[in-house]
Amino acid sequence: MNPAGRSLILARACACWNWKCALLSATARSLVYLAAMARTGLRGGLFVVLIEMAYVTLTAGLYAGVQQRALAFRSRLLGNLTIVFGVPWFALALDWLAHRAAGAAAPAPATLAVCIFATVSALFHLHAMRRGAFLTGRVGRSLLDDFRRVPRLVAGFAFSPVVAMAALSARLARLPRDEAAAADAEAAL
């Protein structure tokens, strides 16, 4: 590849980088690894955490930028699947390979903890981004403003299953009435 092509790829990657998510992801995921590895002793756990911080800081911003761009997909379902599963699971696979290559592979319980955390985190990230939080570029707000919105975002995220179940219950309760109204309209013809 010629130098102009490499420069274009680098420019596009930097334009897509979400520094807010890079900072938050590196901090949060490193704490999850450290907590999950507390039994292995600080020395072994600290090396894994340092690898995690370096790798995630470099990549999480790029992944979050791809997720931010997925908000604009024509198919909302495809965008949501990309944000919640596609990007995080791709990132976790590369993360696992980076740890293996560095000779600091995390034990299975730590890997499982990070996989669960990444999926829940991606669901929250989708929830927050769909509400305009933790975005960068022209559509983003300040990090302080995003942090001010966190309590409301967390509450909305925590109660979203309840809201979804209530909406489903209301829709199911309307079905018999809708069917009866349709049968009455058909009988009137």
The percent of residues in helical segments reads over 70%
Mean pLDDT: 81
Spatial separation of the terminal alpha carbons: 71 Å
Strand content of the residues, in percent? under 5%
Quaternary status? single chain
Low-confidence stretches: none
How many discrete structural domains?
Answer: 2
Task: Provide the succession of SSEs.
Answer: HHHHHH
Question: Helix count?
Answer: 6
Shape: extended
Tell me the structural class: mainly alpha
Number of strands: 0
Rounded radius of gyration (Å): 22 Å
The largest pleated sheet is described as: none
Would you mind describing this structure in some detail?
It is a single chain. The chain is mostly helical and 189 residues long. The protein has two domains: 139 residues, no CATH class; 43 residues. The chain is 82% helix and 0% strand. The chain has six helices and no strands. Helix 1 crosses helix 3, helix 3 packs antiparallel against helix 4 and helix 4 packs antiparallel against helix 5. The longest helix has 46 residues. The radius of gyration is 22 Å and the shape is extended.
